[in-house]
Amino acid sequence: xxxxxxxxxxxxxxxxxxxxxxxxxxxxxxxxxxxxxxxxxxxxxxxxxxxxxxxxxxxxxxxxxxxxxxxxxxxxxxxxxxxxxxxxxxxxxxxxxxxxxxxxxxxxxxxxxxxxxxxxxxxxxxxxxxxxxxxxxxxxxxxxxxxxxxxxxxxxxxxxxxxxxxxxxxxxxxxxxxxxxxxxxxxxxxxxxxxxxxxxxxxxxxxxxxxxxxxxxxxxxxxxxxxxxxxxxxxxxxxxxxxxxxxxxxxxxxxxxxx
Length: 259
Fold this sequence. Notes:
259 residues; alpha+beta; Urate Oxidase; 2 domains; elongated; hydrolase
């Protein structure tokens, strides 16, 4: 039986579209892990191509077919290859992917040394069109900050809070997610941990007290380290503090292209 291909028919409004595709597709993937080589996780994937004015719609099934061709191994080293394949399969001029996934690292408590898994939200944003490629890798890192102003004016203590640092980078050859995580954590008042015993709590509390940071300080310190990194060509950094004594959050942002 021959079934009519409605997508390939001409639309009533012959207007080209920049992006059509699938969003929110959950898919098991293998990503690169600096210590173990490969880490298994589950990504939420958005895939798009452009659509010429002569076509009514795109072929949604072909997006999933391309993902299946890569056998769940999708990471920063082969994501452009995936987009080239998608572009060819859908006869498009451009292809795009947005991939968001939890990334886990084993992290030891600072005093007891007890290890536990810490979750970070990572992402890969990539595009390919007319032999031009763009690849952005990033991660969202939870941190702790202690307010320098509160410490200065208070007799007993200083307010502190959890926050998050989001780093996005373009780079020359390759960069590990672990590098970006380390840069974010060492730029705040203290890292945060999933498991702490009492000696660890004492250390983290006192370390943060001796290392007060405004949200502006965090962003500037991250930016300094990224400017010094030989692989990075462009970056953006944003930090948001979930304030413990205010009814609003504190925020700072910077974006730079390295010459």
